[in-house]
Fold this protein.
Amino acid sequence: MGGHLASWIPAAGAFVLGVLLLKLKDWFKALVDKVAALLYDRLAGSALLARTALRRYIVRVHERHERFSVSFRVDDSQTMDMASVYVPLRTASGFGAGAEQTEAAISLHEARHAVVLGVPGAGKTMLLRHTVLAWCHERYRPQDPPRRAWYGRRRPPRAEPGELDDVPVLLKLHEVNLEEGNVRDHIVKHFADHDFPGAGKWTDRALAEGRLAVYFDGLDEVPTARRKEVADAIRQFTRAHAKCRTAVTCRIAVYRGEFTEDADRTLRVQEFDERLVRRFLHGWPWPEHLPADTVEQLLGALRDTPQLMPLARNPLLLTMIAYLYSHVYADTDQLLPHTRADFYKQVTDSLLGDRRRDARFSHPVKKAVLQRLALAAQDVPSDVHDRLALPEREVLTHVRAALAEQGRPEERAQEVLEEIVERSGLLLAVDSGERYQFAHLTLQEYLAATRLAADPAGLLARYRRDPTAWRETVRLWCGAEPRDCTEVVRAVLAEDAVLAFQCLADAQVVDEALARQIVSRFRHRLGRETGQDRQAVIAAFGVVAGDRRPRGRAVFALLVEIAACAGPGRTAAVAALAATNLPSAAEELARLLPRVPEAGSALAGMGDLAVPALRTAALGGSPEALRALWTIRTPRAAVALSVFLMDTTSVDAAFYLGDLLRDRAIEEALRETPQRVRLPDYMWVWQPFATGPHDPLVRRVSLIAGAIVGAGAEPPPGVEVDPRILVALSVVRWGEPWPDPSWGPEGLRRVATLVEASAVRGDATDLQTLRADAALLAAALPAARSRVLRLLPLPLRLAVIDFLYRRQTVPTSAWERADKPVQHPDYVYGRSWHLRLLLALVLGVSGHAAERAAEAAVGQHPWGPVWLAWAAVLIIVGGWGFLLARQLLGLVMVPFVCLYAAVAWSGLWGAVPAVWVAVATAAACTALALRGSLLAERADGPDHALHRLIQDHLGPPAPG
């Protein structure tokens, strides 16, 4: 027994030793990580570890912004992917019809010092977060495989900082306390909070070199008493570090031109048009049980609810609408709320009364708590720092008071607060739970208004004390309940006429005499207001005129009358009619189209709601209606436009549809719409992008291409025809015969040089020269083809010209199969296994052949004519010389090699076997040469060149 146990002792010792080694390894890894972290904290800001710190900063910032929480979702623990939900915003510079509109990201990139203004929930913060995320995403790919450290631990993918320009820093201004440090100190703190400690010296260098992009978010959230101090600090920072990019966001109603002298651009975030609303809804994570056409159902419901459609154009409110529709209205017969106040009521009631989870406290109790907290937050004096967030102790005090009002035990205040925060998402815990604030200011304002439902005097007193902070609350108070708001509106009229008109639009009951007085007052001011007051008056007119009650019908008729007459109020009246979101308004505006140019843009702003009226006007021969349909840029508008392709006189419709095809959602809608008429001569144009043999787009695009080619007209202003159509018409053989190219390779080289130079320097003069040279090169083409080429974007135009110079035009059959990739597209015969095997065969045989040919040449073993032997020797030697110089001409020696190899082998194996081996060798060499040449020809042929042109410049073809 003892011997048996003794035999187990070494095994047990080995086991224990193995466990200790594993523990030691883990301890060693932990020690290395701890030492590395300690050294990193001490040295991160030094020149030695600066790039490492930046890598970690990029990763942390990316993680911070790649996903975001939407507090209006039922399950708050789930976050949403920024890339799938974010919709590119548009901004405008200036006011009125002449305001220049561009994509917000582009505007922000073009401005070194920008101010971004917008209404609450317009997406100002999301714009900055997306800008920061886009910068990080260029340098960090979290989906890449993890890397392994030298001691075995797996590490996440590493960021590559690359060029350190515009390193983003996003500062929330309501968290910036200038008593704790200046702007530079808060930037250093921001770096420390994102895994870049001790960044002071590095920050100073980056500021001096202009390598930072500092985004100041939420000037309006800074207390009124401290707003000037913060604005002054930002101004001083901008002037001291003028090389750095800066941007400041602020609610448009609060901004007072604090940065007019320092900002090179002031941008106003535009509301969503219907195309962006649709795009946002398609990216929303709808519950799986809802039908596939949920988005179309919701859009239809919005069109049937004119008062709600303006809310859907605000990103925050559209988020609420999507949530509300997902969990309350979808698959039911319920109607969406018709006013802004009703909408907020539905949102708060739905979030507080979620029946899918057990609640410890009733909906009325939690709503009473939130109303009291909202009023407390609105009542915070303006000189208090970070007035949006309430300290936990104060929050619990108000919760206890609300519970006492409801007859509930005050000791359960903490439980009530936790349930509201964890389950509704209306109230957020910030600063590690030390403070609380509402998910958005608009919710706080609505709940404060409902708290003061029976206290109009208290509401007005608060408004007079701080008009800016209470403006929205007054409007929501007027719309929250069906009560008589006459006295409140009358009191507001004495303080702010524009706000009184807005209250009239929101209120459900107002004395008719007062309503007529306000409408009459603004009837004479319509069109004379400027800036943000102009937009507020137009919106208010739209809401009042959209009311189906007698007052609304009277104001609607008034707006139609003003819009029909030339005068200063016409443009504003047209915009107000569009703001009603009524089909009857679209019909009136469509009738005004021929003589009121502003009606076109107003109809376009109404989105799909205006499509039926515009279609009717277009059928009546209105070119303005066609353009308005194009401007709407939705699938429904595109389908309406497609009807006019059958009209051979309506070339503009072809250009408009050719432009809209660049939108993939519109492409799919047109693909699903049957098309019977076609132009046989152009059925090939869409073949590489067709999804099948019966794709309706093949027929529809044949009509578009035929109209573009046959008309000989230039496209309407702003239209950019889908490059897939233009490239087809540029490279395929049709129409006039193709002349000999006259520009020569030197011209192409000059164009390529200019392209490279202009791309590097961005020199406008070089770009103008480049365009001129490209036009001269294209002048050698037939007129119709040259006109089509000029419609292409410049880089793609040069690529097509290069293709034409190298390949000339291709037949339609080659274009039709351009979606099919060529086998071995990167094949190069000189580097192929075919050539290597061929050379191995020739090398193995040529030694025998050269030796036998030399013997025959000198007469040692004569065979055949002497001249043939000498010729074989010279050809074999010369052939190998060519091959060593990478010239395939050397393969001409193969027949001579096989011939004299057969002669040499006949003495060893006999004549017949030697001949068969030589013939087989020659056949193998021939097959390898022919196969390699065929593959090389295909790789260098027009089919592959066409496929590469499509892949490189037009994107992958549609799946077949």
Q: What stands out?
A: The first strand starts at residue 67 and ends at 68. DSSP finds 44 helices and 14 strands in the chain. The chain has a mean pLDDT of 78.
